[in-house]
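User: For documentation purposes, I need each entry recorded in a consistent format: the amino acid sequence on its own, followed directly by the corresponding structure tokens. There are two entries in this batch. Please keep commentary to a minimum and don't merge the entries.

Assistant: Recorded as requested. Entry 1:
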Amino acid sequence: MEAEGTVRLRAAAIWLLVALIAAATAALYLAVVRDLPAYTDGFRVPWWALAAGFAATEVFVIHAHFRGSAHTLSLSELPLVVGLLLAAPQELVLAQIAGPILVLLFVRGSAPVKVAFNVAQFALTATLTVVVLHALMPAPAEIGPGVWTAAFAAVGAASLVAAGLVLTVIALAEGVLPSIDVLQMFGADLVVSLTNTSIGLAGATLIAEDWSAGWLIIPPAAVLILAYRAYLSEHTKHQSLEFLYGVARSLSRVPDVETALVDLLQRTRESFRVRTAEIVLFGAGGDLPLRTALDVGGATQTMQPVGHELATALRACLREERAVVVNRDTAPAALAEYLAEQRISEAAIAPVPGETRLVGVMVLGDRLGAANDFSSSDLRLFETLAGHAGMSLEFDRLEQAIRRMRELQGALERQAYCDPLTDLANRALFMRRVHESLARPRGTSTVLFLDLDDFKRINDHAGHAAGDAVLIAAAERIRRCVRPSHLAARLGGDEFAVLLEDADERHGEDAAHRIVALLSEAVPIAGQPCWVRASIGIASAGAGSGVDADDLMRHADVAMYRAKEAGKGQVRVFTTAMHPNAPTKAPSRDEILAAVDAGEFVAHYQPIVAVGSGAVVAGEALVRWNHPRHGLLAPSAFVPAAEATGTIPAIDRVVLEQACREASDWCEDDGYAPDAAVHVNVSGEGLRTNELVRVVEDVLERTGLAPRRLVLELTESVLIAEMPTARPVLTELRALGVRIALDDFGTGYSSLACLRSLPVDILKVAKPFVDGAGRTPHDHALLAMIIELGSLFGVGVVAEGIEREDQLDALAELGCEMGQGFYLGRPLSSETRRFALRDPLAVAA
């Protein structure tokens, strides 16, 4: 009852403000405006034409809604200035009232209080503008510099008064003072108002000289509308990304779940400008759901149990696992009762996905201020936010569970089985647990063997204290990525391991990719960021397989070695073809350079397909070494050595030139769509100087390939490592017309940082997120989030690693633009030019 009373009191205060504005307008009109003459003696614009002009500016007004704030730009100053100079003052006031009121009532269908406030504000604005103009430059007067200056002053004064009234009504409606962002927004509106005034004065001057020239004001007005629309669109995109990035960083840094939930809700409530924000976490098994809520006054309820009926009702609203808007009058009975208890009239509900299930929902109740409903862009942003929260909060709960388990261990056991630096299990405990796991009568045991890349360089250059800090940070991040039932250990030096019981290789790959993603975030060392990556090998063994603990560890070690060969930050699963007793010898610098000169490095092309039509819209150039003795070698056999010996730029240039030359000859007979693009991978070496720009420009000129058809792919890890110099290089490349693709997108918060800071045209969703498409709700939610993010910021999305039909079906349902993987087509050499694609109609279906 108290909340409803507050709402009624605020509504009464707004009506009182409207009455005061109307009274002030009437007083000014009767005392001054009623007796004022027309400003000029020449051509007069009739009042109905001005009313039509004011109505048009309200019809074509531009609204930008972001997180609850309503930013509006219009051209209302154009008819206002024309009427000031070319109409009777009394008719101008009448037109300013009559024109907008029709639009507000019959086009927008605004609430009565909004109609009353806007009409009163418009009337006061017109009246005040007339009074100020005639006070500064009495009528009649010739239109010229003096009149123009007075008109600018009059419109500026009226705009400031109107802004003050809007800020007042926002404060009355929301019960809080407007934020600095809102104040900055009105500053921008004042600049727009003066710009419109300038064009209005030009139009009025033209009409005064020759009324038939009035149409000349239409083109600049249309250009202004388009410019305002473009500005607000870019502003909204930037603000959305800043908001998501800030929330993600905040959640990742808060160790306590309750504090993280309250911080999340505080940011969400303020950003979306809602009366209440809450999150309901569904219990496992028969546990009751837990509700955490925050209202507009700052009162919180943390982890309070609620009934299962509420969880069931909330799930029923999210059958498609998309954010929805629910009205209390039309909601299911249980949910309607809950909304009534919380005094919520309209709520937005978004799913909070977990790793394997829906772990909860977020609920926003009742918008405040000017934007009183949830737009489609609000729902997309809210759904993306809830997806980020699901990942972060689930990791936080696991971290706390692991910490509570460690606290129960005795001091003696800790001394015998814990690594003193990282507080992880040591080698002795890990090997004992692996032996016990393999001795069970059933189940599968999986081991992850991790080795930090370039750790020796950190120790040598920054010292052992810095090395210890990196090890501690790595251990903490590994711990956050595994379940309480799994065991993480430091085996010694920079080697770590994880034991997953009752988990197969697929679960091991999921955990490994989570670890790689989290390790990619910078570690602050002595105030400077330090980036660490890990190579991970995976091996599994079932009960009764005859594989003992030593064999399983050896297999994982060999797979880790193969991961290092494939490049830093890679994951590999052990297979019998890896031959642990016969490791391959890395090629030397001279061998690689000789192969470059001999033309032994060639490009194979894997198709990138439009999911909707099945057309091959691009091909990715994948380098191979056509070795004269060993045959065709995959990148894992030579790329690590090329990176270590500094010969990777030479290989990159060979592949770039071959790809551009051959792509310029692609045609529909080869299976390509018209103007199909070629994707070429770029290493980090070229981003350190402008050499890459010169190379690309030279190759495009000599091969004749249109710049738009070249897409340069850079992995997230490369962009992070070269972040300081990447921006200017990528900016120059895009100036040439070349497009940029961010590979392996979605592997951590750093992906958002790259998208925020660097010019990117295409996102390539990492294979681990595509593997579960069509099978697990968690992966489905992640894919939906990334695809929506791409749509929100106007970039293309390519899903990598499509290997099954159900994956393609799920991606088509989610609206993914492009796909790539063995199911759609394998890499082919330039000689085998026509892709053996599946039936395009089948792909599209």
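Entry 2:
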Amino acid sequence: MKRIILLCLFLGSTVVAMVAQSTVNYSEDIAPIILENCTVCHREGEIGPMPLTSFEEVRNWGFMIKYVTEIKYMPPWPPDQEYSHFLGERGLSDEEIALIAEWVDNDMPEGDPEAAPELPTFPEGSQVGDPDLVLSFAEAYTHVGDNTDQYQIFVLPTGLTEDRVIKSIEFRPGNRSIVHHALLAVDDTGEARAMDEATPEYGYVGFGGWGVETLDEYPGYVPGARPNIYPVGIGQTMPAGSDLLIQAHYAPISADQTDSSTVNIFFADEGEVVDRFVQSHIMLPFFGTLTNGPFIIPANETRNFHGVFEVPFKVSIMGLAPHMHLLGKNWHVYAEQPNGEIVNLIDIPEWDFNWQGTYFFDRFKILEAGATIHAFAEYDNTTDNPLNPNNPPRLVTWGEGTEDEMYYLPFLYLPYQNGDEAYRFGEDGTVTDTDSPVLPLAENKLRAIYPNPSSGALTTYFTLAESTEVSIDILDANGRLVSQPIQHQLHLRGQHQLSLDLDELAAGVYIVQLRGEGFSLSEKLVLLE
């Protein structure tokens, strides 16, 4: 009998030891998942509502973590990863989700603390790194608690003494509870500064625009967005003596609150040659964009709007940033090449107003001239939508207020350049796989004039087979030279773009002629009143 009891005790202790050894624990199983996927946002000063940097902090929120990972609400990544891929994709595997659930269901043991990985080293006050320039509000701005939206433009002098190239820009909201989103632009005329000085409060009202013609716009801020670093050789300019403009959208509140935000700016290193500059185009529901407009969403109805944009010249798409408000349900965007080939761009099956972003592809999406971009956006203005800000529902149209709606789809792109097919981008701005053969520039070509017809301000795109001096002549319908905006300027082999201002010419039909050594190319141009 004693032998039987001893045998049972031995087997029992062995089973207990085996179970203890196989139990999922924080240090070895859960910490690597949390630190790699969650802590970047869930730490002091970042967007996560609670820190997840230690065993105690993670255990305190264990049941919540299990729930939001099982329903795949966290980590937040709205785009369908089977439709298209972007830099910085977030998400857990089914195996990782199951590990978290098992750990929580087994009372969340810590395991050996010495076996836990060290907390990653994160930059202070940034998700990118140590900025080259930090611009801050000169004073705190008070958003009045009158339950209305406010768009306020702030003018921050850059203090630059020379032109610089921006590789990344990061808006840091001072009060996340009221900063709905922020747009960034640059002004080198001083006009925005004068408008600010003419108002008694800090900044000036910018509902509906900037109030001035901006030189360039930079990637802005929306909840959940992480700043991108432009790849090697690519950037945006910030001129000497310019002012950074911030259009901050403050959400409706019932009591006064203040905000004092900052912007981190990262410049190209001196040794980096940047010769390609990012451009943007925004699809809005006006000017014939919608095939089933106008953009009106009646009460108690759902609407799915279909917008179409024809690409005027060959482009390399870098990214896009779909935006809608509380009635939004989903986005589905693709392009159709002239030969009928479909290029997947983005699919967001369940729109979440709290998690938006500018999504950068891990490689260029190259669209031929004449390709059409199709963008479908669905809205639910019924009582079935729990986020509907109006009860009972009311008719809603396009607008910048939170209770209005938006169909707003910016694209970031570059004019296509031979070899763009070979680029593969990393999150840190690195470029790989560039050893693939680059297609030869077989001919000099005047690729496009855009827009055409034009009111006077236009851009010409052309390719040179070899470096040469070029001139641009403007001829009238009778072949007479009426303007020569470019004379004998040296341009290197490759693709180029030049902005022209022909405001002094009368409306009519003209010929744009590009001349270089051994060639002359021309395109018809129509100037409007």
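Summary note for entry 2:
The radius of gyration is 28 Å.
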